[in-house]
């Protein structure tokens, strides 16, 4: 179900068990058109597989709830005109949950769905409702801080930061974006209070020295 990964930009795993990803902000209906999350979830190849980073189990759970209760609040996932934020557990997160519920290691998506479905449709519906917030945008940084994070920092190398990139960083929920000096920052990036640039001179010099002396380079990047 590779196409299910398209949902990653607007929804990511969020369970009380170990997370597979952090929550991502939902875009407005104007930005995203009228494509519903349900359309994305059911697009492409469907069915359980061995790709635990997609959303086969939650797709099956949504379909099961809507089949039993067509007017369930979960139906909002099929409405492309309603803005919402969805924290959607991927298959690995559901397998972790199923393992905790059964006290046994669950190693297949089908087994995980069976364990979750055994809780009953009303319970599955409640779990799904818990992860959907209609009419709201929850930024990933806010979600992380609500879970105890003191700062939200992103890192990247070779910061081109073209077009509206700097503006987006300044308007984001990031406390800082840390970049390298492999290329010069443009004026707006250099003036941004959220962008911090680190020099790679020392590590490059040490890498060259090790290559010259036939020493290990890989150990330089291992704690």
Count of DSSP helices?
10
Overall 3D shape: extended
Instruction: Compute the number of structural domains.
Output: 2
Helix coverage percent of residues? 25-40%
Helix-strand makeup class: mainly alpha
**Could you spell the SSE succession in H and E letters?**
HHHEHHHEHEHEHEH
Cα radius of gyration in angstroms: 22 Å
- Ranges where pLDDT stays below 50 over 5 or more residues in a row are 1-30
Numbering strands along the chain, what is their spatial order in the largest sheet? 3-4-5
Span between N and C termini?
A: 37 Å
- Biggest β-sheet: count, sense, barrel? 3 strands, parallel
Compute the average pLDDT.
Answer: 80
* Strand composition percent: 5-15%
Using DSSP, what is the number of strands?
A: 5
Explain what the structure shows.
The chain has ten helices and five strands; from the N terminus they run αααβαααβαβαβαβα. The protein has 223 residues and is mainly alpha-helical. The protein has two domains: 2-140, no CATH class; 151-221, Rossmann fold. Helix 3 packs across helix 6.
Q: What are its keywords?
A:
Rossmann fold; disordered N terminus; mainly alpha; three-stranded parallel beta sheet; 223 residues; extended; two-stranded antiparallel ribbon
């Amino acid at each position: 179900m590779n196409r299910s990964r398209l949902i990653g930009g607007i929804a990511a795993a969020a369970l009380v068990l170990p997370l597979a990803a952090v929550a991502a902000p939902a875009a407005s209906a104007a930005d995203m058109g009228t494509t519903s999350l349900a359309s994305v979830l059911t697009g492409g190849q469907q069915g359980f597989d061995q790709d635990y980073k997609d959303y086969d189990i939650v797709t099956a759970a949504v379909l099961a709830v809507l089949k039993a209760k067509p007017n369930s609040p979960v139906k909002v996932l099929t409405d492309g005109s309603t803005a919402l934020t969805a924290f959607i557990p991927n298959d690995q997160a559901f397998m972790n949950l199923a393992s905790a519920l059964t006290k046994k290691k669950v190693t297949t998506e089908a087994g995980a769905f069976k364990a979750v479905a055994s809780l009953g449709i009303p319970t599955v519906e409640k779990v799904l409702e818990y992860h959907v917030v209609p009419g709201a945008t929850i930024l990933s940084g806010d979600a992380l801080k609500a879970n105890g994070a003191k700062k939200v920092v992103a890192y990247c190398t070779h910061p081109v930061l073209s077009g509206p990139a700097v503006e987006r960083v300044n308007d984001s929920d990031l406390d800082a974006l840390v970049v390298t000096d492999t290329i010069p920052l443009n004026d707006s990036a250099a003036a941004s209070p959220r962008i911090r640039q680190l020099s790679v001179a020392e590590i490059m010099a040490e890498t060259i020295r090790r290559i010259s002396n036939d020493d290990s380079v890989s150990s330089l990047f291992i704690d």
